[in-house]
Every structure is written in C-alpha cells, then in structure tokens.
C-alpha cells in the first residue's frame, strides 16, 4: 500500500479521485498544509476500524489497571477530574488525539 503525500492545493484539485482511491483501494493520502499541519485521507471504514482498535486498547489498559489494583500492585487513588484519571492511566482524555 502506497501513501502518496500531496500539498493541500493539489489534494483539493484531485479530491474526487483521492476519495475513490481511499474508499475502494484502501490507499491513504497524506495531505500537507505546512510542515506541522498534516492530515491523512482514509476511508470511513478504516477510520471506524481505527476508532474501534483505540477503544479496545483503552478498555484493555483500564482492565489491566483494575486487575493490578485487585492484585495489590497499585493503590486506590481519588481524582479531581476525569482528565486526571485518564492521564494517570496513560490515556488521552476523550476528544484528545491518541
């Protein structure tokens, strides 16, 4: 699978074929606006697969943290915010990038 990299102007010009290639050929395209601003065009199906994999990873980490607590390998801790809990578990808060 090749991952073509295009500037945003060229990607805009070729958007239709790039979407078709992502959906039917499962070929991602990296789109750059600057050195720091990059995105990847993938099919909705692949995006959903990535979300599902991320959720499974997060659930696994949480289960392991609970199991470690039950084995006495970690102590109980109170959190002021949900973000503190996620940070302690090494997870991005909901809505943050992984």
From TrEMBL:
Gene3D superfamilies for the chain: YefM-like domain
Coiled coil: none
Pfam short name (any one): PhdYeFM_antitox
Superkingdom of origin: Bacteria
Family statement: Belongs to the phD/YefM antitoxin family.
Physiological role: Antitoxin component of a type II toxin-antitoxin (TA) system.
This protein's name: Antitoxin
């Amino acid at each position: 699978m090749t991952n073509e990299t295009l500037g945003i102007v060229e990607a805009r010009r070729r958007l239709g074929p790039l979407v078709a290639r992502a959906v039917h050929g499962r070929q991602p395209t990296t789109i750059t606006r600057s050195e720091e601003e990059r995105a990847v065009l993938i099919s909705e199906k692949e995006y959903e697969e990535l979300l599902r994999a991320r959720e499974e990873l997060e659930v696994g980490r949480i289960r392991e943290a609970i199991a470690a607590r039950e084995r006495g390998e970690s102590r109980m801790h109170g959190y002021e915010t949900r973000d503190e809990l996620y940070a302690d578990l090494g997870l991005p808060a909901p809505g943050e990038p992984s």
